[in-house]
Amino acid sequence: MPFFALGLAVVLGLAAWSIFVGASDISLRSLWESGWHDTPVQVLVESRLPRTAALILAGSAMAVCGTILQMLVRNRFAEPSTVGTAEAAKLGFLIVLILVPDAPIFMRLAAAAAFALLVTLLFLRLLRQLSLQSPIIVPLVGILLGGVINAAATFLAYRFDLMQSLAAWSSGDFSMILRGRYELLWLAFALTLVAYVFADRFSVAGLGEDFTTNLGLNYRRVVALGLGIVSIVTAVVIVTVGMIPFLGLVVPNLVSLALGDNVRRALPWVALLGAGLVLACDIAGRIVNAPYEIPVGTMLGVIASALFLYLLLRKHAHLT
Amino acid sequence: MPTLRDAIRQRPVALLVALAVLGLLASLAFMTVGARGPWSFVLPFRGMKLAAMALVAYAIAVSTILFQTVTANRILTPSIMGLDTLYVLIQTSLVFLIGSGAAVALSPSTLFLTQVAAMIGFSGLLYMWLFSGRAQSLHLVVLIGLILGVLFRSLSNLMQRIMAPNEFAILQDRLFANFNTIDTDVLAVAALSVLAVSAYGWRKIRTFDVLLLGRDPAIALGVDYKATVSQILIVVAVLVSVSTALVGPTTFFGLLVASLAYRMTGSERHAFLLPVAALIAILLLVGGQLVLERVFAFDTALSIIIEFAGGIAFIFLILRGVSR
Predict the structure, then answer these.
(1) Which ipTM was obtained for this model?
(2) What is the DSSP string of B34-75?
(3) B304 lies within 8 A of chain A by CB
(4) pLDDT tens, A274-286?
(5) pLDDT at B166 exceeding the cut of 90
(6) Are A155 and B150 within 8 A, CB to CB?
(7) Range A90-116 average pLDDT
């Protein structure tokens, strides 16, 4: 517990830092001297606070999503971008945008999440039917499937002049976050809490249909709930800030290296580390090339894929 | 009953001639269909484009098949293992480290050769690291290659973001050609490099066949295994550099072409396999571009379609391999 408090303090420190870093210089002093109104306060309320909140919410939600998927699929390398969920959500948004251009955001979200859920279910069923033992196959085929869906999406986007939207969904970037443009992420946060409550059932479901039914749980319902949460959260994150690659894969694995596989104990840490990592990357992205910004997706793309490689190579003795 | 495939296998020359004729027809059509404006403009303009496409197709086909010979399987390709993105990373790092001013001051051929040298070094290291004796699962190697590709691409993106916008513009302009704005100098350097490694490889082509028997049999038959593998890797590095310099990274084109070539020929003789693969690649690229550009008026869609079809083919190859 004292360690968790320490971790929490670090993340809160990063959050505070995130509030005071950026192109427009605001500090406690400038806030005080402006008498708590005027430009500094406006920047604080309209941009910095929403941005910091969005970073924490999106980071923790994506990391928790990874954990849920890993439990349900019983594969350490499952996460929204390695089982087709993320790419399917993008394609879903695109199709809705083409068919019903002025659909309200909730309808778009529902359609994209439903599509993502469907693709993920089909993918997992296909893999189960092939009864594949190698843990490498899930991320390998999943990433390839993501590439195929992505090609289809690119083709559609190219055809209907929507490349800009597609690019925005594909790469995580918090620089456009303002008050009024991130609040959907609270929905993702609420779903993350639901996931915490049901964490034990997800790990039971990972042990198989028969086992789950023997324990008196409705297997299909548990899987549907878990994948439903993952699909909605992924869709929300994609439409508000864009895809954050491999976060859901790397964070839970790092936590389990340190803490072992007790899900209930691990989940708060996963959420904390996810938030911390995204915060740190965003702050670094704002500092490295100030006053310009480097999007989180680019920073994390480097860090997360390097960590993914580390996990693969470290684990390779168990994988072959 | 003799099928078409049997017929082809008995008469390899007929297949070569048929593919060459089809390729020529596609090229002729590409040069002439839908031409508006004076021929003195159209022919040189399209000719450059055609030459670049043929060069890229040849480079990708040959490098893929040779790479598969060295790694003794039909799933890995240089681009799947991240070599294309490695080239882009080297390119970006060069401009990032020495600045665009210095990079522009170098002649295109010096610049290109520097990059090729770095590419040979790094891809050699990568290969040694991935295949250093320990028997690892092929799927793990593929996954590592795919993630390496992501890592290299993200690193290049990061550097391109940090660069000043005009440095980036110069990098883009100078180093990433596309088929519509081909630099004559780059094309000439690329063509010469391809010619050089092809002449070199042609003399060794029978040794490549022996490599397919596996490491130990090849050594028993008197092949200097290590030297041959390194030579092939150098050839592959040069060819990948050429194709990436001309069109940028392509993920699955090589895989598609190589799979088609194996299926059509059913042969393991490189002297037959390599020309067939190169002709298929030219036919696909020129024909595909012709159809999309002139018939459907889609300009950049070819790479997307290749990505789509290639991804599906690759998933199929992997799942078929697994279920066995």
Answers:
(1) 0.85
(2) T--S-HHHHHHHHHHHHHHHHHHHHHHHHHHHHHHHHHTSSS
(3) yes
(4) 999 999 999 988 8
(5) no
(6) no
(7) 90
Mention every residue, 6+ apart, whose C-beta is less than 8 A from residue B81. Answer: B67, B126, B130, B141, B145, B148, B149
Burial class for B16, CB neighbours closer than 10 Å (0-12, 13-18, 19+) = middle
Residue type, B287: G
Q: Which residues of A touch B304 (CB under 8 A)?
A: 151, 154-155, 158
Cβ distance B315 to A148 less than 8 Å, yes or no, reads yes
Residue B184 CB coordination number (10 Å): 9
Contact between chains at B146 and A305 (C-beta distance less than 8 A): no
Q: Is residue A114 exposed (0-12), middle (13-18) or buried (19+ Cβ within 10 Å)?
A: middle
Sign of torsion over alpha carbons A174, A176, A182, A188: negative
Which has more confidence, B80 or A180?
B80
Angle at A183 between CA A179 and CA A186, to 5 degrees: 140
Burial class (CB in 10 A: 0-12, 13-18, 19+), B282: buried
- CA distance linking residue A51 with residue A174, whole number of Å: 7
Q: Does residue A191 contact residue A262 with C-beta atoms inside 8 Å?
A: no
Chain B nearest-CA distance from A77, in A, is 11
Neighbour count for residue A106 (Cβ, 10 Å): 10
Contact yes or no for A233/A63 (Cβ under 8 A): no
Give B-chain residues touching A249 at CB under 8 angstroms.
Answer: none
pLDDT for B66-114, tens place per residue? Answer: 998 888 888 888 888 888 888 889 888 888 887 767 766 777 777 778 8
B162–A302: do the CB atoms touch at under 8 Å?
A: no
Q: Which two tokens stand for residue A170?
A: 């594909």
pTM: 0.86
CB-based contact, B97 to chain A, within 8 Å: no
Gap between the Cα atoms of B69 and B262, Å rounded: 12
Q: Are B243 and B282 in contact (CB under 8 A)?
A: no
Angle at A63 between CA A62 and CA A67, to 5 degrees: 115
State the Rg of chain A over Cα.
Answer: 20
> What residue in A sits closest to B317 (Cα-Cα)?
A141
Give the end-to-end CA distance of chain A in Å, rounded to a whole number. Answer: 37
Tens of pLDDT, residues B118-138: 888 888 887 777 766 554 677
Cβ(A287)–Cβ(A21) below 8 Å: yes
B contacts of A305 (beta carbons < 8 Å): 147, 150-151, 154
The mean pLDDT of A9-29, rounded to a whole number, is: 79
Q: How many CB pairs under 8 A join A and B?
A: 104
Q: Hey, what are B163's tokens?
A: 């660069």
pLDDT > 90 fraction of chain B, expressed in percent and rounded? 11
